[in-house]
């Protein structure tokens, strides 16, 4: 007699981790609870989990006094969640987080974002959070350890970069704890790290924000050069380029100094507005 094939919607062993989606399913309940506890759940009443998989983290979010939404691109995971997490009915969004207009879900409300993020798109997730920063007071989750460390790094470090500056201009970034490969199925080849971002009380910049982003990216795209050389395409006047700050390399500048640099350049630069 032919054995009946298991249904992924009922059997978790049939929800396969897909390499092309960068999936590594968290299987450690203690780690999941610890991640759920990283948010304060203050100042908002909705939380969006990215990439819930089979809901190991989701179950602990559902214990909190908040309205939980999940966004998942994997159809097998969606089917499993719909059958096993009935409290999520109507709040499971089978969409690509990077492409989906979240105003269709949250309007202009405040909400937090959390998740065990696929390594292959984790930086892109952070860039989108920065775009949505007016609505996201808190963000926490699991990254490849070196990426999480880089986001929280301070100036003067070799790993300090674009994400470090842009994130820290708007959020307080805190590296929380390291997670070994053994808590995942399949285990990744590297350690993971959990970080938390808390939006600053005053997170609007005293400069042209688009120009700020542009200057940070231009500087780090040629990080071995001084800013005098990496920003030469801005066609700034010679007397401005003689300012001492232009003799620095990008990793030497804090986010506050990048703001000061933007303020110096602003009167001379063509805005992207």
From TrEMBL:
Its EC number is 2.1.1.182. This is Ribosomal RNA small subunit methyltransferase A. The gene is rsmA. One of its GO terms (cellular component) is cytosol. Specifically dimethylates two adjacent adenosines (A1518 and A1519) in the loop of a conserved hairpin near the 3'-end of 16S rRNA in the 30S particle. May play a critical role in biogenesis of 30S subunits. Pfam families: RrnaAD (PF00398). It is found in: Cytoplasm. One of its GO terms (molecular function) is RNA binding. The keyword Phosphoprotein does not apply. Belongs to the class I-like SAM-binding methyltransferase superfamily. rRNA adenine N(6)-methyltransferase family. RsmA subfamily. It catalyses: adenosine(1518)/adenosine(1519) in 16S rRNA + 4 S-adenosyl-L-methionine = N(6)-dimethyladenosine(1518)/N(6)-dimethyladenosine(1519) in 16S rRNA + 4 S-adenosyl-L-homocysteine + 4 H(+). S-adenosyl-L-methionine binds at residues 24, 26, 51, 72, 96, 116. Residues 31-201 form the Ribosomal RNA adenine methylase transferase N-terminal domain. PROSITE patterns: RRNA_A_DIMETH, SAM_RNA_A_N6_MT. Keywords: Cytoplasm, Methyltransferase, RNA-binding, rRNA processing, S-adenosyl-L-methionine, Transferase. Its main location: cytoplasm. The keyword Cytoplasm applies.
């Amino acid at each position: 007699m032919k054995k009946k094939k298991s249904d992924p919607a009922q059997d978790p062993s049939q929800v396969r981790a897909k390499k092309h989606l960068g999936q590594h399913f968290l299987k450690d309940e203690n780690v999941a609870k610890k991640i759920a506890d990283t948010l304060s759940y203050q100042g908002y009443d909705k939380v969006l989990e990215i990439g819930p998989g089979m809901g190991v983290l989701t179950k602990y979010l559902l214990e909190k006094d908040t309205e939980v939404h999940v966004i998942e691109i994997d159809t097998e995971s969606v089917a499993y969640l719909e059958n096993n997490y009935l409290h999520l009915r109507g709040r499971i969004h089978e969409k690509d987080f990077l492409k989906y207009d979240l105003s269709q879900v949250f309007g202009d409300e405040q909400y937090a974002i959390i998740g065990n993020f696929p390594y292959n798109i984790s930086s892109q997730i952070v860039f989108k959070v920065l775009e949505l920063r007016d609505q996201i007071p808190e963000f926490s989750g699991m990254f490849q350890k070196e990426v999480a460390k880089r986001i929280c790094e301070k100036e003067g470090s070799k790993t300090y970069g674009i994400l470090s500056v842009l994130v820290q201009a708007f959020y307080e970034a805190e590296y929380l704890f390291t997670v070994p490969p053994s808590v995942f199925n399949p285990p990744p080849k590297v350690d993971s790290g959990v970080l938390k971002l808390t939006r600053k009380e005053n997170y609007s910049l005293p400069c042209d924000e688009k120009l700020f982003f542009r200057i940070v990216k231009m500087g780090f795209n040629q990080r071995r050069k001084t800013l005098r050389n990496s920003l030469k395409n801005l066609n700034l006047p010679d007397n401005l380029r003689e300012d001492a700050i232009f003799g620095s390399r990008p990793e030497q500048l804090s986010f506050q100094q990048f703001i000061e640099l933007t303020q110096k350049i602003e009167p001379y630069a063509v805005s992207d507005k």
